[in-house]
Write a structure and sequence with these properties.
Structural class: alpha/beta
Largest sheet: 8 strands, mixed
Strand order of the largest sheet: 1-2-4-3-5-6-9-10
Radius of gyration: 18 Å
Helix content: 25-40%
Length: 292
């Protein structure tokens, strides 16, 4: 497998500067740019299979959102939120000198893309929202709160993969090799009590603003996201795991009828969220991005 190039960009936050890492595939001079952004506790290498499939057509850029992967952790945990992430992506697009981009966003990455694309003058041409919309179902929020921010140490890759799989049944069926591939980049080597092993490349403090969110704040955020969605003018594809606990059928249908009137494609046997590792999922994204 061809390896991507690891790059960094400096971004501004309330306490100073932080570095955001991003993985780049394909010809760095290609004016066609595809940005792929991961979910809440994941990182940019989740998109390796999709990037390999599309890097002949695009310069594919997969950032590690701040607090994840190879990016810095924020000094102020309350900075972990969509406003910070959108500002970081603006810095990234400036670094890439990208005049027009297409965007694939899984869960949180979709909300970042939605928010960015809704801004006046945004360069987003096509937007793929992977199992996310303005409304997050309460059961999904409780599931997220139950695990986000937890720390762990695993002596082996296999034990780490088993632990991640226990939290990720919604991703749908994967072979062991596929799942190990999705796990490796999540881990950093550490030593605990003289034992070498692994921990997650994710700041536990990303949980702080999630746990601090009140019902009133969540309702206000939902209203703002609907306003952003209704401002979208780019072609939009909405992917949904048919068994998703986060994106309800009603919200998905509403997204096909308002704002950009998204095209909807559902994947059977998958919950939250399709990993875009399998050929059938990649083909749906490819057709949307590359053909009118």
């Amino acid at each position: 497998m061809t390896e991507p190039r690891l790059r960094h960009v400096q971004c501004l936050d309330s306490r100073g500067l932080h570095r955001m890492a991003y993985w780049e595939w394909g010809d760095a001079a290609n004016p066609k740019v595809l940005v792929c952004v991961h979910g809440l506790t994941r990182q940019g290498r989740d998109f390796d299979r999709l990037a390999q499939a599309l890097c002949g057509d695009y310069r594919v850029v997969c950032p590690d959102v701040v607090g994840r992967g190879r990016s810095d952790w924020l000094a102020d945990p309350m900075g972990y939120g969509i406003a910070t992430y959108v500002a970081d992506m603006v810095c990234l697009l400036a670094r890439l000198n990208a005049q027009v981009v297409d965007w694939v966003g899984t869960s949180m990455g979709g909300l970042i893309g939605l928010s960015l694309a809704s801004l006046e003058g945004a360069p987003v041409r096509k937007l793929v929202l992977n199992d996310v919309g303005p409304v997050v179902r309460p059961q999904a929020l409780e599931r997220i709160r139950s695990y986000v921010g937890r720390t762990a140490f695993w002596p082996t890759l296999d034990e780490a993969a088993d632990a991640f799989w226990a939290l990720s049944q919604g991703f749908g069926p994967h072979t062991r090799d596929e799942w190990l591939g999705l796990t490796r980049a999540q881990l950093k080597p550490v030593t605990q009590d003289g034992v070498q092993g692994f921990s997650a490349r994710c700041d536990p403090a990303i949980a702080v603003p999630i746990r601090a969110a009140t019902p009133e704040l969540l309702a206000a955020g939902e209203a703002l996201l609907w306003q952003s969605y209704d401002r979208l003018r780019c072609a939009t594809l909405l992917l949904r795991g048919a068994e998703s606990d986060l994106l309800s059928p009603a919200t998905a249908q509403a997204m096909t009828q308002r704002g950009p009137r998204a095209q909807l494609h559902e994947f059977a046997g998958v919950g939250h969220a399709p990993t875009l590792v399998h050929d059938d999922q990649i083909d749906v994204v490819r057709r949307f991005l590359l053909y009118p």
